[in-house]
Amino acid sequence: MDEVIKKVSEMPSNKKGYISGIKYYYDIVMKTNGLVEDEELYRALVGFGVELDELIKYEDSTSVINLSEIFEKFYPNGEIHHLLDLNNLNVAMDGISECLYRLKKEFHLEKWN
């Protein structure tokens, strides 16, 4: 057999996978036209991107907490922001939400679930 066995340290971590998922869905959201119409939403999206860059760079729990707090701004009054809904970004937002949830579990941040 030519199968190579990798060391655990060489395998991608679950955290990296969830971070990549957030990045993937965030990129879809940011490529959508019309979100700049709402200044507050756009500022939150840009802030989310800045914090996501920090998470990619350092992989720390503080960034996960900050992303979770910013993410709540995309759901005013518990409902998806009307511009996100209008642009059919529900699936992307659900993907970000799921990855954030999983990251909080990975970092043992159940308090923020």
Helices, by number, come to 5
What can be said about the biggest beta sheet? Answer: none
Helix/sheet category:
mainly alpha
| Shape, principal axes of CA atoms | globular
What share of the residues does DSSP label as strand, in percent?
A: under 5%
Instruction: List unreliable stretches of 5+ residues.
Output: none
Radius of gyration: 16 Å
N-to-C terminal Cα separation, in Å?
45 Å
Element-level helix/strand string? HHHHH
Kindly state the percentage of residues in helix. Answer: 55-70%
Number of strands: 0
Q: Can you give the mean pLDDT?
A: 91
In short:
Helix content is 62%, strand content 0%.
Note down, in words, how this protein is organized:
The protein is mostly helical and 113 residues long. Helix content is 62%, strand content 0%. The chain is built from five helices and no strands. The longest helix has 20 residues, at 39-58.
